Amino acid sequence: MPIVTGRAAQIPAPGKDFEIVEKDFPEPGAGQVRIRVQACGVCHSDTITKFALFPGIQYPRVPGHEIAGVVDEVGSGVPLFKPGQRVGLGWHGGHCNYCNPCRHGDFILCENAQICGISYDGGYADYVIAPANALAFVPGELGDVDTAPLLCAGITTFNSLRNSGARPGDTVAILGIGGLGHLAVQYAARSGYRTVAIARGQDKAPLARQLGAHVYIDSTTQDPAAELQKLGGATVILSTLTSADALAAAVNGLGPAGKLIINGVPEKPLNVNTVPLIMGRRSIVGWPSGTGMDSEDTLKFSALTGVKPMVEVYPLERASEAFDRMTSGKAHFRVVLAIGQQAQAGLKG
Asked: In terms of domains, do 74 and 192 share one?
């Protein structure tokens, strides 16, 4: 197919408002695929593009790295993907295959990794062109709007948990029930862990139970670390919070050889007493998202077990409003742009 024309919500320069433009989307090059976007999640990491928080971003730039769509055109040297197939594209936007991490098969740590919506134009648009090695197939059971958030918030929490070393029956605590946390609770419960949800206020307890948590801890009236120790200590604490103080306090809730995994970026450096880490062989680690294959595993597990994001949906033309809603912290719980006709059919009002 030749060049196609479509809409895009782009950032013209750092800090500027979104502008809706018509632009050309060329044929994909070697090793690339052109995707007709059906839905794209609005993630907090999109602030990186909005405010130039990473160096070297070229503007204008179209954000968006939670993309559910359909293969529109395939470049040369792409044997796996065909036009018409449903695919997803997440934060990991391609790898080089040749750096040391890639040669060890650790593609998410590629030294030359690309990030969709940062390294190249992302999914706040009718089309996106991306490296084929970053894509995931989407199961037929998942709709586009539900798929989109699973390609960042979903894969980050699911991949963290399945690589944590926790076994079914172990106590796994989720710090925060927000955009990432409400998915993490579902993944933990459906993976067979004794799932503890920790959030602020008793009003969150019914939601925690609905998501599958076996225990709820209200951090405004209870000491999460002490409550976790009453349960024998957590094998894993998965943090989706941005509060460094809450993170530091949670370390004391770990059991022997327990692990605190950080998904949310704290607003300041952690101040942690290292003695409990040393004496209990405890650890603090970070975890990025994952590759296209990891995304595919996330989507398959979600379809199999019924994990589903809670979303607020906006049309592409209201991308600025959707972005503001996401950054307000008031969204319940992920914001998604419905872009393709099938996704738009689900919009109300």
From this structure: no
Strands 32-42 and 19-25: unpaired
Domain that holds residue 69: 4-152+290-344
What's the DSSP call for residue 154?
I
Q: Let me know whether 266 and 296 are in one domain.
A: no
Q: Is residue 349 part of a domain?
A: no
Q: Do 22 and 145 belong to one domain? A: yes
| CA–CA dist 284, 23 (Å, integer) | 45
- Output the pTM of the full model: 0.96
Measuring CA to CA, which residue among 222, 217, 212 is closest to residue 237?
A: 217
User: CB–CB of 130/120 below 8 Å?
Assistant: yes
Regarding whether 147 and 9 lie in a shared domain, the answer is yes
Token pair belonging to 83: 């036009």
Each residue of 65-124: pLDDT tens digit?
A: 999 999 999 999 999 999 999 999 999 999 999 999 999 999 999 999 999 999 999 999
Sign of the alpha-carbon torsion through 347, 41, 12, 70 = negative
**Exposed, middle or buried, 248 (CB in 10 Å: 0-12/13-18/19+)?**
middle
Q: How many CB atoms lie within 10 A of CB 81?
A: 16
Q: How many domains does the chain have?
A: 2
pLDDT in tens, 42-53: 999 999 999 999
Among 279, 281, 276, 217, residue whose Cα is nearest residue 251: 276
Give 67: exposed, middle or buried? Use CB within 10 Å, 0-12, 13-18, 19+: buried
Burial of 256 (0-12, 13-18, 19+ CB in 10 A): exposed
CB-based contacts of 136, cutoff 8 Å, min separation 6: 87, 88, 89, 90, 151, 292, 293, 295, 296, 299
Q: Does any domain span residue 159?
A: no
Which CATH number belongs to the domain containing residue 173 in this structure?
3.40.50.720
